[in-house]
Amino acid sequence: MNRYLRNLNRIEFIITLACTGKCKHCSEGDHKRTGENINKDIAAEAVKYIAEKYNIRSVMTFGGEPLLYPETVCTIHSSAREMRIPQRQLITNGFFSKNPGRIQSVAEQIAECGVNDVLLSVDAFHQETIPLEYVSAFAKALKENGVPLRTHPAWLVSPDAENPYNKTTKEILSTFTAMGIETNEGNVIFPSGNARKYLSAYFDLSNEVKSPYWEDPEDVRAVCLGANGDLLNGNIYHSRIKDIFKSYFPRQQNEERSTDK
Ligand code: SF4
Predict the structure, then answer these.
(1) Regarding beta strands 154-155 and 149-151, do their DSSP bridges make them parallel or antiparallel, or are they unpaired?
(2) Taking the model in full, what pTM does it have?
(3) What is the distance in A from the centroid of ligand 1 to the CA of 171?
(4) Model confidence over 51-71: pLDDT tens digits?
């Protein structure tokens, strides 16, 4: 076993960087509506290979908007369930279609493939460009299909800070609370990408802030497969996953996962 990966316990998948939102707090910057997406069969094989070698406790799928490719999300989580990985998470903005039949069908697929923790990104920032009615319809469909679901807001400065964005976020969350959907702790916006560009007035940019997604390259706990197949120092489309794991070594610079969650 590669000693730098000895404590690995989590696999994350960026399904795609394409997104239906255009959030001003997005750490990724601007997204397109369509784009590259990870190959579902190769991703499912990666889950199997890694879970056979390491004590993986959770698998997470996110983006961009992962439900632009629900089959890929479901193939990965089916594989995770088959490998008895206990926590199977999906982070979504909940807006992938305006079609009620499609919304219902995707909720059913999510239920069937064994996702057991949906984190729904709703807040003042997402709802500037994402219509709440379709997100609510999806949340309702998930609930009806018995999928565990929580809202997952982005807070500006801190959850307790008083600013117009947090105020709107609390109003939005209350509509989900009324539906019986609880709020998790969410995350505090990190000044990178669009957040650095559009919300700089709220950050002290004179001091360097460590990303909450920073990973110690000498003791990797979570690996993240990019939509383009990037994994650790390699790429699953160009190298065997076995070789990527075997040859991994910490690079000079600390690696950051710069994705939005
Ligand atoms: S924050 Fe999430 S929903 Fe918004 S643009 Fe970025 S990836 Fe899309």
Answers:
(1) unpaired
(2) 0.92
(3) 20
(4) 999 999 999 999 999 999 999
